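Operator note (shift B, R.M.): manual run for Methionine synthase requested after the automated queue skipped it. Running by hand, logging everything below so the morning shift can see what happened. Input copied straight from the record, untouched. If output looks odd, do not overwrite the archive copy; leave it for review.
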Amino acid sequence: MTAATATHTPIHFDIVGSFLRPARLKEAQAEFEAGKISQEQLTKIQDEEIKKLVDKEVEAGLHYVSDGEFRRHLWHLDTFWGFEGVKKIFGEHGYFFHNLETRKESAKVVGKIRFTKDHPDLKAFEYLQSITKDLDVVPRQSVPSPAQAYAEFVRGEDNLESLNQVYPDRADLVKDLTQAYHDLFLALYDAGCRDIKLDDCTWGMLSDSDFWSAQNIDQKGIEQLQAEYLELNNLAIQDLPEDLRISTHVCRGNYASTWAATGGYEPVADTLFGKENVESFYLEFDDNRSGDFSPLAKVPAGKQVVLGLATSKKPDLEDPAVLIDRVKEASQYVDLDNLALSTQCGFASTEEGNHLTEDEQWAKIKLVVDTAKQIW
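Run finished. Output pasted below as returned.
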């Protein structure tokens, strides 16, 4: 079986994608930022550490592999900065997580948004493809969703004012943003990619009723946002090659082992599960913040749900018996053959990473793989 055909094989264990940055990689990044090494030297170290990571992923028995997001600073902003017309800025505030505030980087629209062939996600995948093309695995590219990009472009008065200057007509923004994403996806496909995962915190935030109450946004406003996010995502992924698998991961925030949003999937289930045109949903269910499984009844028959039951935020290993029982519970709503098991998120959505060691990270993955093999 080759990487091109492996997507047709039912797989019941998976990962979300990001891995803890090795010490050597962190040191090289710091030296680069201090002007002590060149971009070429940094890229060489990134390449070497990604190769080591892929070898470990293969050794762990994973079918879908990633580059660990080792070239990214943050899970989403690097992608936005890679589009023409988008500028890296430092805002007044970062994102407000539970008990902390994140770094202050943001992305501001300063010109018409376009995809170009030097986009960092394309370059990153080309290297991943080069080291996996002869392996019995599927290289996956994770990309923050178009809805997530839009949410960033309107975050804060400075971003919003700049966006309005460039795109006074929102229809033009929708057209350009979704086309830029569509062009990125086609370029990834041409480079050999057959599996793209859209990482998306927008649906997790829309599930948090306390957040929207604090913003004085009522149910009508929430429904309008859902419609806008759905349109952006579906337009970007329409008319893609049939053998390109598109999935989405819904996150509630993953920064230094803490979180940003809380709430079950019920408020977004009809729109997200019923109308977003993806094949698989990677969903967080590692604690009570994610609610129960009942919203999964809205997932159309035949679509896959990857249950993020093992937390990537803490080193403690879950009881396999509890994980098995929870999968069985979820199978009341989604056929067992269409379920899979994973960690609830990646281990390092940003360079900082979560509060666990690399050995503890791999122990989590082993738990997921071993438990899934007991179930399926």
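Quick read of the result: Residues 6-375 form a domain with the TIM Barrel fold (CATH 3.20.20.210). The first strand starts at residue 64 and ends at 65.
Leaving this for review. - R.M.
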